[in-house]
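queue> pop job 88
queue> type: inverse folding (structure -> sequence)
queue> payload:
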């Protein structure tokens, strides 16, 4: 049997996906993150400094020189502004990035040695199969719709997440309608479960990251690009949403990512 042709754009996507996880600011290196949307002060576990927003909506950090916190290469000794996009440095080869505006900021801290420490070296995937590529269509949802979705916090919690459209896709002659979440700026997310979960893929399901398009737009639905949740990279940091009610596909979707690959002790 001839192996299917693997498109160049899929190969490029795989490289980009690994860069997203293992690159300089990869998600596999994240050891702390926070959303700062009020004056604070805010602290991050194991990370020096107190983070605040000013009356003008700017972000600041307060630390002692001995804490070793740097903003854009400058050691903080007192209180320092943290302009959006600033690079951050912390002791023990950790770095970070702050972004946002007008009193709402995201703060991410990475440990540049974490991949070596955890042994993460790749992602196991099903073989590429063009049969799992479909044309879907966005359908309008009620304006401002939010769906109560569980989050992987401890203890488990729920959150009403914006769900601006549905995705309709026909598989083997049957139409399925999946709720599309907008949990991250600039992209939409379908979290789905299928009959491989708990066996060859994680129990909590997988993700399809989709573009921002208007209702009525067609969209490529490529299950070869189904990804693992960020939760598997660091469950203490990534308290990701779970699949909304109704987002189960009653079939085995043997495409996309299925597990992280870690080096074993006997591999050194």
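queue> result:
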């Amino acid at each position: 049997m001839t192996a299917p042709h693997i498109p160049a754009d899929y190969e490029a996507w795989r490289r980009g996906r690994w860069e997203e996880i293992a690159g300089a600011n990869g998600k596999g290196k994240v050891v702390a993150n926070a959303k700062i949307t009020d004056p604070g002060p805010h602290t991050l576990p194991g990370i020096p400094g107190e983070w605040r927003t000013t009356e003008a909506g700017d972000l600041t950090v307060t630390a002692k020189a001995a804490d070793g916190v740097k903003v854009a290469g400058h050691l903080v000794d007192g209180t320092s502004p943290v302009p959006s996009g600033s690079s951050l440095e912390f002791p023990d080869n950790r770095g970070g990035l702050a972004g946002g505006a007008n009193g709402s900021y995201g703060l991410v801290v990475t440990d540049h040695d974490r991949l070596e420490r955890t042994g993460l070296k790749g992602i196991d995937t099903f073989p590429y199969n063009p049969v799992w590529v479909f044309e879907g269509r966005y359908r309008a949802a009620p304006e401002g719709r939010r769906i109560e979705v569980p989050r992987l916090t401890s203890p488990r919690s729920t959150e009403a997440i914006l769900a601006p459209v549905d995705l309709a896709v026909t598989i083997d002659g049957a139409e399925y309608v999946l709720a599309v979440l907008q949990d991250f700026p600039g992209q939409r997310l379908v979290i789905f479960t299928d009959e491989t979960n708990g066996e060859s893929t994680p129990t909590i399901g997988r993700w399809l990251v989709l573009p921002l398009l208007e209702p009525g737009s067609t969209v490529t639905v490529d299950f070869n690009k189904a990804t693992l949740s960020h939760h598997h990279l660091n469950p203490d940091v990534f308290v990701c949403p779970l699949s909304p009610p109704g987002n189960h596909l009653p079939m085995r979707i043997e495409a996309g990512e299925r597990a992280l690959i870690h080096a074993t002790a006997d591999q050194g």
